Amino acid sequence: MMYYLSNPDISLAVSGFGAQMQSICSGGQEYLWSGDPAYWAGKAPNLFPFIGRLTNGRYTYNGKMYEMDIHGFAKDKEFELLLQTENKLTLQLKDDNHTYFMYPFHFIFQISYEIVGTAIYITYNIENRSHKRMFFGVGGHPGFKVPLGQEENFEDYYLSFGETHVPTRVGHTDSCFLNGIDKDFLLRDGHKLPLSHDLFDDDAIVLKNMADRVTLMSDKSKRRVELSFPDMHYLGIWHKPRTKAPYVCIEPWTSLPSRQDIIEDIRYKSDMIRLEGGKSYQNKWSITVS
């Protein structure tokens, strides 16, 4: 099922499958990646209840082993419609026998999209319907077209973090698991990350201790995309490695993948969100185009 929101400044299409955005259009310009499977068939998956890879696709909870695919299962589930108006959409996923086999918690995961001007406000609401403490990660994985204009190149674009600072790059192994070696990640002029295809030859760049907003832009264009994510502690930046893929994913996350060769016990994984039984969690972030 497809759902549509629009105002005079922006139109948004969202699929019920994964509650994934399918189109962001403003002023006749499409901003979202097309999902070309030659590079990456996704467009903007929602990540829950785990982000990144699990060692051997497994984790433990209370001494029992569970299996889960990369980035969790929400991206592969059909969400039901809870609310739709001209400018707002809320889709909902509830646990079922299939999810409980992978993730032994009862939950409600709601994703709301609201458009105001050229901004899209995305809200994650998660309710723990179990009596026990629940452990999870949640985040976004939107891909954006690069370049946005016909007379530009991928290398004309950069990510601007606005303020001068030195974020930390989270260390990963060649297999994209944590290696425990984090390093300063110097930005050009203290706030810019110029894009180039070889930037992703070793897969994603994952940052922490970074500014809570970033803008995809080019000095040759007035088109830009700004993400604001005040309650996300990590940011993934990615396109398919060793290709000239014409997009970049800018991914705000609350948590990180597993450590290399460690089957994680999610009760003790320090970056997981801990939510007591009967309680709710909310996280808001936004995308603004111009």
Keywords:
single chain, 290 residues, mainly beta, nine-stranded antiparallel beta sheet, six-stranded antiparallel beta sheet, 25 strands, globular
Write structural notes for this entry.
By secondary structure, the protein is mainly β. Helix content is 2%, strand content 41%. It has one helix at residues 97-102, and strands at residues 2-6, 11-15, 21-26, 29-30, 46-47, 58-61, 64-67, 80-84, 88-94, 107-116, 119-128, 134-136, 139-140, 143-145, 157-160, 168-169, 183-184, 192-194, 205-208, 213-218, 225-228, 234-238, 247-253, 273-275, 280-289. The strands form six sheets. The protein has a nine-stranded antiparallel beta sheet, with no helix packed on it. The two termini are 28 Å apart. The model has no long low-confidence stretch (mean pLDDT 97).
